[in-house]
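Mods, move this if it's the wrong board.
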Amino acid sequence: MIKTMKARVYITLKKGVLDPQGKAVMGALNSLEFKEVTDVRVGKFMELELEDSSREEAEKRVRKMCEKLLANPVIEDYKVEIG
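Not the wrong board. Structure tokens:
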């Protein structure tokens, strides 16, 4: 049986990049009387299951995946958690 580990990737728009989806969600929340919400940024969450390797190698590989496909590094930031 192959051992696996999970990688979690959180992708968000960089500060200063317009987030129309976040603005729409904020407007909807405000219209539902959640007036305490002053800003919303919408992002993406991905969970990857990887064949077992070292944590360092797994993180390095997932960062490459983000740079090449999962995130757009021009307008998005990402955070990787291996566990």
